[in-house]
Specification:
By secondary structure, the chain is of the alpha/beta class. About 45% of the residues lie in helices and about 20% in strands. The protein has a seven-stranded mixed sheet.
Length: about 800
């Protein structure tokens, strides 16, 4: 019996499903409980409305064929993203329509034309089958009929407005009035009228989801009022009662149009006049604000008054073209689907949960409060962690245009605000230039490398950005070239920086800072597998069937060839490996022999292609001599380990501290504070007084060409001093960070996550952190916390007990 059921064709199986009674207007229709699904792009069908559909996709054709066995019924569901070519059930909008196929006609290229009529609203239910067509259980939605005075008033209002629209359009027959008047139910009237209105797919879906006819009537009435206003305006423009009763500007535009038509017929139009009129037509279509329109009109009048070969004509024309091309009123509609946005962000970037959650929060707020101001975010992190590419992904997730302005090395304020038109070669600043290229007034605008802004005699660009990035001021941003306020409040600004130290405090205060720390080894492996390797395979003309880059090889590259916080150098090394592989594959192709198996890239291939690993294990760099201690540092490139060396030179003339390694003032002061604490506690530390009296102590931090500064090396400096003076060796597997006070307290520092990740990459086993930094470990991945033994210290004594060997008895 089970085999017989499995062998049934879809049509016969559909007939075997139980029937569900569906209410369609005043009728009750029996419909199978399981129906085939026909996905459509940007089409919404209402009950009672007849719609022609072009069907050409494989599963859509299969659904149309199965409908013949289901009494001609099927489900028409709108795709969430029209770009998806082969939609799955999760790609469909949850509210759909049950329709009946009235007629099917063969079309070109194996496609079909189907005429369907809507039967009822429907919620998509359980998926029964995926092939050859998607088949799902139906959940019909009945209208919630509630008789009320408000419903009857709206019912009559929609009929009146529909009659008014028919009267205002000469191509609408009067018979339609009787048809509208005779619609039996308010819900059906709302659906029929809505199907004729120019609504967006989102608005049509919103109306399809509404089961209350009264609310649907109110929605349709508001759109009909707008259509009446448009139609009345168009009729007034095309058939004015008299020139004297018109608005003066309107009358002038009509007269100019008539003059152009006469000159065109006579062939007497002057080229200069034609140029001005063309600009005027473009200006009419640009929909400029009143202030900008008045300024552009004045410049056009100046242009019309100048001779054809006047030198100022080119300058004025360029200015007017800029005014026309700027997106004063053009903007894209946000894609407010949280699930689709999350899918886009996850597909483009691994991890970065904080940023993804912040973008989804913005979408949720925009969905609930469409007029809310856009946030101004600042992504801070080391190079190569994906700050710039994240901006592109955010734009794609929101459905917005993407604009980018690189601010690295910008020293001229005019780069932001533009040049005044009195200068030769004047033009707007980078803000308006980027908006013009984007063609939208609400793009995602990336201000790249905002921490690299400079200052010189030409002004301070960071001060010019204060107005751009202030939601209270950027509604009237003034560019020196345009000289007309431009509204930037709809732009979503995202700044990127490697460090917050060089960003002026006033500018930093206007931004919401989101830190993007470095990646762990596991993160890098995931990014390499999902993103970098497929990208580089395609870039080098290779396929996975020709080259197999194994996990062992990737782990070898990540662990022994890269110590960066990001993945930029990792991508370069993968590209190097695939270039070597491409050479071998190309040689195989040239010889005409078919490879029996794909070329396997293993650790041996990596060593041969990349040479000796540039990063030796840190244990080889540590020494067994006293006075050498491992610290942790936070740099613009992420976290790193830091070696501090101390040695005691006897025979000096009084105690003297020598510091080398290009240390900053703050780090030098930490060393002096550490030495003062050691001298004050020499007896308890077991340091003879005569050893401190005449000794010269030399503190050195290797990598002397790299500037170093900050207070977080305080505990490392003290530990190195005590180790050198007592002869107690520092434990090589222990690294530390923390500021010290003269009383021996260990104070909290910043960059904890980057420092802990650096310790993990370097093979450290134990990390000493200030007790007050315990809260910062919440951002450290669990895998790293399990790998390291993290100890919290409050005093310098705690550090010495944990970092130095015990003194000999």
């Amino acid at each position: 019996m089970a085999e017989e059921q499995a062998d049934k064709p879809p049509a016969e199986e559909a007939r075997s499903e139980r029937q569900i009674v569906v209410v369609a207007g005043n009728e009750r229709i029996e419909v199978p409980s399981v129906l085939p699904v026909l996905p459509v792009r940007d089409v919404v069908i209402y009950p009672g409305v007849t719609v022609p559909l072009a069907v050409g996709r494989r599963r859509s054709l299969a659904a149309l064929e199965e409908a013949s066995g289901a009494g001609g019924f099927l489900i028409v569901a709108t795709q969430r993203d029209p770009a998806v070519e082969d939609p799955q059930p999760e790609d469909l909008h949850p509210v759909s329509s049950i329709v009946r196929v009235m007629r099917v006609i063969d079309a070109k290229r194996d496609g079909k034309q189907a005429v369907v009529v809507g039967v009822a609203r429907n919620r998509l239910g359980e998926v029964v089958a995926h092939e050859p067509a998607i088949r799902m259980r139906i959940d019909p939605m009945a209208d919630v009929e509630r008789e009320s005075a408000e419903r009857d008033r709206l019912w009559q209002r929609v009929i009146e407005l529909a009659h008014r629209v028919i009267d205002l359009h000469d191509d609408y027959p009067d018979e339609w009035k009787g048809f509208v008047q005779g619609v039996p139910t308010p819900g059906l009237l709302a659906d029929l009228v809505a199907s004729t209105l120019p609504l967006s797919p989102e608005d049509r879906l919103k109306l399809l989801e509404e089961p209350d006819p009264t609310r649907r009537l109110a929605y349709v009435a508001s759109h009909l009022e707008r259509e009446v206003t448009i139609a009345e305006t168009q009729r007034a423009l095309s058939q004015p009662s008299s020139d004297e009763e018109m608005d003066p500007k309107h009358r002038e535009r009509l007269l100019r149009k008539r003059l152009r038509d006469i000159e065109r017929e006579l062939g007497e139009q002057d080229p200069a006049i034609r140029e001005v009129e063309e600009l005027r037509e473009k200006l009419e279509a640009a929909n400029l604000p009143e202030v900008a329109r008045a300024q552009a009109d004045r410049e056009l009048q100046r242009l019309a008054a100048l001779p054809q070969h006047a030198p100022d004509r080119h300058l004025i024309r360029t200015y007017v073209e800029w005014m026309i091309d700027l997106p004063w009123s053009k903007q894209t509609e946000d894609r407010l689907d949280l699930h689709a946005a999350r899918a886009v962000l996850d597909a483009d970037h691994h991890d970065l949960e904080k940023v993804k959650d912040r973008i989804l929060e913005f979408l949720a707020v925009r969905k609930l409060a469409p007029t809310a101001k856009s946030p101004i975010l600042c992504f801070v992190g080391p190079p190569g962690v994906g700050k710039t590419s994240l901006g592109r992904s955010i734009a794609r997730a929101l459905g917005r245009e993407f604009a980018r302005a690189s601010l690295g090395g910008v020293r001229d304020e005019a780069e932001i605000r533009g040049h005044r038109r009195t200068y030769v070669g004047a033009m707007p600043g980078r803000i308006l230039q980027s908006l013009r290229r984007a063609g939208s007034r609400n793009p995602v605008f990336l201000l790249d490398e905002i921490d690299k802004l400079g200052t010189d005699f030409r002004g301070d660009p960071s001060s010019a950005l204060l107005e751009v990035l202030d939601p209270e001021q950027n509604t009237t941003f003034s560019d020196h070239y345009i000289e007309v306020p431009f509204d930037l409040s709809q732009v979503m600004f995202i700044a990127t920086a490697n460090s917050l130290a060089t960003i002026p405090p006033a500018l930093l205060d206007r931004m919401e800072v989101i830190e993007l720390p470095g990646y762990t080894e596991r993160d890098k492996l995931q990014i390499a597998r999902r993103h970098l390797v497929p990208k580089q395979l395609e870039a080098h003309g290779l396929t996975q069937s020709e080259v197999e880059l194994g996990d062992e090889a990737l782990e070898h590259v990540v662990r022994d060839y890269t110590r960066e916080a990001g993945v930029r150098n990792l991508e370069r090394l993968i590209a190097t490996l695939l270039r070597k592989a491409a050479r071998r594959v190309a040689s195989t192709r040239a010889s005409g022999s078919e490879a029996a198996a794909p070329l396997r890239v293993d650790p041996a291939f990596v060593d041969e292609a990349l040479g000796a690993p540039p990063h030796l294990p840190e244990t080889a760099e540590r020494t067994t001599q006293p006075g050498v201690v491992v610290g942790l540092a936070h740099t613009n490139h992420g976290g790193d380990i830091l070696f501090v060396e101390a040695t005691v030179l006897p025979g000096g003339k009084g105690l003297r501290l020598r510091l080398t390694g290009q240390l900053g003032d703050v780090m030098r002061e930490s060393a002096e504070a550490g030495l003062s604490w050691v001298r004050a506690n020499a007896d308890s530390l077991g340091i003879p007084a005569e050893r401190l009296r005449d000794a010269e102590i030399h503190l050195h931090v290797p990598a002397g060409a790299v500037p170093k500064d900050g207070p977080s090396a305080g505990v490392t400096l003290v530990t190195a001093l005590v180790s050198a003076l007592t002869g107690r060796r520092a434990l090589g597997e222990v690294a530390m960070t923390g500021e010290i006070s003269l009383r021996g307290r260990v104070l909290p520092v910043g960059g904890i996550k980057d420092k802990v990740l650096a310790a993990s990459r370097a093979g450290i086993e134990t990390v000493l952190l200030p007790r007050r930094n315990e809260k910062d470990l919440v951002d450290v991945p669990d895998e790293v916390r399990k790998q390291l033994a993290i100890r919290f210290v409050e005093t310098t004594r705690d550090v010495l007990d944990a970092a130095l060997e015990r003194a000999a008895a």
